[in-house]
Design brief:
Blueprint (H helix, E strand, L loop, with lengths): L1 E6 L8 H12 L3 E6 L5 H11 L4 E6 L1 H11 L15 E6 L5 H5 L6 H14 L3 E8 L2 E3 L2 E4 L1 H12 L6 H13 L8 E4 L6 E3 L1 E5 L5 E3 L2 E3 L11 E6 L4 H13 L9 E7 L1 E14 L2 E20 L2
Parallel strand pairs: 1-2, 1-3, 3-4
Antiparallel strand pairs: 5-6, 5-16, 7-10, 7-15, 8-9, 8-15, 10-13, 11-12, 13-14, 15-16
Length: about 300
């Protein structure tokens, strides 16, 4: 088996020693090349070349941003068309970031050493699974994408975050983005096949659950959402403090389905379209993509093979 290990040396939990241990362990089972990323988009370029060269496995060692780049590289030649997905290298993940939402959703250990053992065991026994992905405006996402408040938070964090990220940083960014939204609060119109359009102020689209983590605590928005179902929508048509506190509390304290008169929630849907009256921030897997006035979110079942 030919494999490439893609390492983001700037990720929160990656170290040179950890990289060497991981590379040595993998090299005992596969013919391995190691690439350290040194610019934005590098992981995507490496994964795209791996797919074109017929590599069997690409292992991403970094945070969710690194994983997202690798996924988008592996599927780049599909051109955003699920029908054009051809033979693609399998994906392996060894967490190295601050949240590692995708890895945790797969049941991988947060500790890189433990996750390495899991990966080696899966390779020995040939274990793997197909996972569904989301596709939004040409960008593949593994766990979440959104328009509005959450994207504002992501953008604010990106301007301030160095190697050391923290839950406190995200909380401060959430409060500041709530008090002073950088682009205001343009109305968002959500359209789902078979449903009446609804107007909301912020919208989260999930491909799995939990949506993210606050430290070690999972944040649940669409508890029934998984890699085997369609997309989940969690949107609020009001952002008063009582509404925000109510749903934040539900998200942190329970995995049960959220309810509320200001909540618009759907599970297992194949397509979601969101239109904004003015440009709003748009994020994918915790990475700010830019500003949009319209985004279509598609569920793509079984898009990728993952070694777990």
């Amino acid at each position: 088996m030919r494999a490439i290990l893609v390492v983001n040396p700037q990720a929160t939990s990656t170290t040179a020693g950890g990289r060497d241990v991981l590379a040595h362990a993998l090299a005992s089972q596969v013919k391995l090349d190691v690439v350290e990323t040194d610019y934005r988009g590098h992981a995507m370029a490496v994964a795209r070349s791996a797919a074109r060269d017929g590599i069997d496995l690409v292992v991403a060692h970094g945070g969710d941003g690194t994983v997202n780049e690798v996924v988008n590289g592996l599927l780049a030649d599909a051109g955003g068309d699920p029908a054009r997905i051809g033979p693609t290298p399998a994906l392996g993940v060894v967490p190295g970031g601050s949240a590692n939402v995708f890895a945790r959703a797969l049941g991988l250990a947060a500790d890189p050493v433990e996750a390495t053992h899991q990966l080696l065991s899966a390779l020995e026994s040939g274990r793997g699974r197909k996972v569904g992905l989301g596709l939004a405006d040409g960008h593949w996402f593994t766990f979440n994408a959104g328009l509005g408040w959450d994207a504002d938070v992501v953008g604010r964090v990106a301007k301030r975050r160095g190697k050391e990220a923290s839950a406190g940083l995200y909380l401060r960014a959430a409060v500041r983005s709530y008090i002073r939204p950088p682009l205001g609060r343009p109305e968002l119109t959500v359209r789902i096949p078979g449903e009446e359009p609804v107007v909301v102020e912020t919208a989260f689209v999930s491909n799995t659950d939990p949506w993210t983590y606050l430290g070690e605590r999972p944040v649940h928005l669409n508890a029934d959402c998984s890699f085997e179902t369609g997309l989940g929508l969690f949107a609020l048509n009001g952002l008063s403090l009582p509404t925000v506190f109510k749903h934040a509390r539900q998200a942190l304290l329970t995995k049960s389905n959220q309810r509320g008169r200001h909540l618009v929630r759907h599970d297992d849907v194949p397509l979601i379209r969101i239109d904004a009256v003015e440009p709003v921030n748009f994020q994918v897997d915790g990475d700010l993509v830019g500003q949009r006035t319209r985004v279509e979110f598609h569920s793509v079942p079984g898009a990728l093979s993952v070694i777990v």
